[in-house]
Amino acid sequence: MYFKDMHILSMKDFSKEMIDHILETAEKLEPIAVMKERSDMLAGKVLAVLFFEPSTRTRMSFETAMLRLGGAVLSMGSVDASSIAKGETLADTIRVVQSYADTIVLRHPKEGAARMASEFSQVPVINAGDGAGHHPTQTLLDLYTIKRESKLEGVRIALAGDLKYGRTVHSLCYALAHYGADITLVSPDGLRMPYEIIKDLEARGMKVRQTDSIDEAITEVDVLYVTRIQKERFPDPAEYLRVASSLQITPELLENAKSHLKIMHPLPRVNEIDPLVDNTSHACYFKQAFYGVPVRMALLALVMGGME
User: Which of the residues are catalytic?
Assistant: First the structure.
């Protein structure tokens, strides 16, 4: 499997074999992520981090991943303090930064920005989220979490929350199609998974069910993936509160869950998961955030030639 100099733009670019290789590489590198081992695999290499949107987990886990492998990180800093504020185009920014770094990690508010950036870059571009488009490294760390904490092949998973606008769950669904997953979609009417995605998944042979009852779904699944319902999309605050409260995960709700159920969330959360759930064996979202480090270590090592 040869990833050197490859752009990481969308999960649609990956075969099952490629995904499996990345996840296996992440598992090999996890001892370095937890500092049980040390590595200078990427010594002398530089990662440029260009974030045009706020980020905590994605940005810091990429930076940690690079540092754990012995490389260096070059950050653009805030947009207001860069030449972007003077009107510089993204294409020109990429043309300049590629001469400073061996790989570029880009987060941008406009869908398609990462693919466009890859056309102007002679070094690998890794998409760290482009608007409502793709976030492939989030999907890969989600798959890694499911593999490490539950099972990936044939997993029974419920996706709950904002399934209409959530790029995270859209990409995850397509990736899970490689593993014969059984998917239950839980959301209010206005935030259901787009019809075309459901039909596409069914055409790939996946079992997909829809419900607005979290109580019903939680009794049958191995993994519950919760997403934030975005308050800003509701013109009526009362309607938002009604919807948000209907999908809140509480310790009482979990009394009917399977003992091995794992709860995931891409974070940040608002009130969709009661903090009391954090102390249960079901809570997996903070481990999920950590797993971003070995997964992004694997991607950086592969595209920069530290591993094959």
Answer: 57-58, 86, 107, 135
